[in-house]
Specification:
The structure holds 2 protein chains of 2 kinds.
Chain A (H helix, E strand, L loop, with lengths): L1 H30 L3 H36 L1 H39 L9 E9 L7 E4 L12 E3 L4 E8 L4 E5 L6 E5 L5 E5 L7 E4 L12 E4 L12 E9 L8 E6 L8 E5 L16
Antiparallel strand pairs in A: 1-2, 1-12, 2-5, 3-4, 3-12, 4-5, 6-7, 6-9, 7-8, 8-11, 9-10, 10-11
Chain B lengths: L2 H18 L13 H13 L1 H16 L8 H20 L5 H24 L9 H28 L10
Classes of the chains: A alpha+beta, B mainly alpha.
């Protein structure tokens, strides 16, 4: 009899917790991430931030040892590759400076702005998302520093993602490799398409590419910045890895490698730019 | 200290380890899931009811830091903790490796259940071929960390009228 009462009580507890979870899910869905749940999340981020920073200072060497042991060969190969790239880049720098000077003169003449003119907030990457189902980073800047939800995030080479949640001292960035991330892109000949994240270490897929669009491996793609886009135009997104046009198909199959090495990000810039659109998050539609 | 103090402390410790250390310790791009492990360990240590309650608390705490629907982790972790506790009550004393194997299987099942539950509430992108890799890595990581996790939750749940399984 005691066993029966205990098992009944256990089942009752489970049912109660399940119903409570479903109620919370419903409240969150109706509130669209704002309201009391949004306040709780923001408070948790701000309250946990100093504790996490202190803990990281202690345990980061452990993570570095792990990476050093299991990724030494990868790091060595990447070092050699980056040295070669640096040499090539130094040669192109002088050409780029002159081209930039001409571009700025042209933009000023026509009253236009470039990505380089947008005010930005530098931020340090604090941690990745604790979930394996999200491709997101947490930055050490928040509303107190002028960061707002929806702002684009870039690193030295190009697009990193978009701010989707922000508290006073922390902000969460949805990476362009997340399966829910979409960005309007354009190719060198100004044809436009939509790039979608496919997960970590996987190239982005680019949809809506016409068969007539001239695309080849190595081509750069940039943010298109079309009307209602949440990204300004001209931010490098990636390089074409593969472009295949099947005879008779309505679209080309194009994949793009991000120009930014997402796995090694330490510092980023949050562009203080907004097209006036609503807060963009994982549940909302493509730009 | 009563379990009412020790359990939240254990959950916060797991969250701290997850955020500060485990997110950087990745195999095939997948990190261990300390919060799911806490729910599994509670079920192994103290049975179904404890597993469900700790799973709910750990899941809700984790949901504060995720962009997935708030309440999704608490729903999944409470069910996984309950299931593990129900099974562990029968087998846990049979052999030392049973709790480890339970943690491996529960870790895999928990990740799959999270993706499926997420798909049911509109997060269809959670179900992808990568789910297999996530389930395998988390399952193995749970197995590796099972022994210290079960000891931690046994300590956290002792006292206050909670029946903890003998070692």
């Amino acid at each position: 009899m005691a066993v029966y009462r205990r098992s009944t009580r256990q089942r009752f507890t489970l049912v109660l917790l399940v119903l409570l979870s479903v109620t919370i899910l419903t409240l969150d869905y109706r509130g669209q991430g704002s309201g009391i749940i949004g306040v709780l999340k923001d408070g948790a981020h701000d309250a946990f931030a100093p504790v996490q920073s202190a803990a990281e200072a202690v345990v980061r060497p452990i993570g570095d040892v792990f990476n050093g042991i299991f990724r030494y060969d990868d790091l060595e190969a990447e070092n050699a590759r980056l040295r070669q790239q640096l040499e090539e880049a130094e040669g192109a720098t002088l050409e780029a400076r002159d081209a930039q000077r001409q571009l700025r003169a042209l933009l000023d003449l026509n009253g236009l702005t470039s990505v380089g003119d947008i005010a930005s907030v530098s931020a340090r990457v604090v941690s990745a998302s604790p979930s394996n189902f999200e491709q997101a980073l947490v930055l050490d800047r928040g509303t107190d520093d002028g960061v707002a939800a929806g702002m684009p995030v870039v690193a030295g080479a190009g697009l990193v993602g978009r701010v989707i949640d922000v508290s006073r001292t922390r902000s969460t960035v949805l990476l362009l490799t997340d399966p829910s991330f979409r960005v309007g892109v354009r190719f060198l000949d100004d044809d436009v398409a939509v790039a979608t994240g496919e997960g970590p270490g996987t190239p982005l897929t680019v949809d809506l590419v016409e068969p007539s669009t001239p695309v080849k491996k190595g081509d750069l793609v940039f943010t298109s910045g079309l009307q209602q886009s949440v990204f300004p135009p001209g931010i490098p997104v990636g390089k074409v890895r593969r472009a295949r046009a099947t005879p008779g198909a309505l679209r080309q199959e194009v994949t793009v490698d991000p120009v930014v090495d997402i796995g090694r990000l330490r510092f980023v810039k949050v562009l203080q730019w907004s097209p006036g659109a609503a807060v963009a998050g994982p549940r909302e539609a493509a730009p | 200290m009563t379990p009412r103090v020790k359990v939240p402390a254990a959950v916060l410790l797991a969250l701290l380890l997850q955020q500060a250390l485990l997110t950087d310790v990745r195999v095939a791009g997948v990190a261990p899931d300390a919060m799911l492990l806490v729910a599994v360990a509670a079920g192994v240590a103290a049975g179904a009811e404890a597993g469900a309650i700790v799973g709910f608390v750990a899941g809700l705490t984790l949901d504060l830091f995720l962009q997935t629907p708030f309440g999704l982790s608490s729903l999944v972790f409470s069910v996984v903790g309950y299931g593990v506790g129900s099974v562990a009550a029968v087998f846990v004393r049979a052999s030392w490796w049973i709790p480890v194997a339970t943690a491996v299987l529960a870790g895999m099942a928990g990740e799959v259940a999270f993706a499926l539950a997420g798909a049911m509430v509109g997060e269809g992108h959670l179900v992808s071929p990568r789910l297999v890799t996530i389930a395998l890595v988390v399952g193995v990581a749970n197995g590796v960390l099972a022994v210290p996790a079960v000891r931690l939750m046994r300590w956290a749940l002792e006292g206050g009228g909670v029946r903890v399984h003998a070692r």
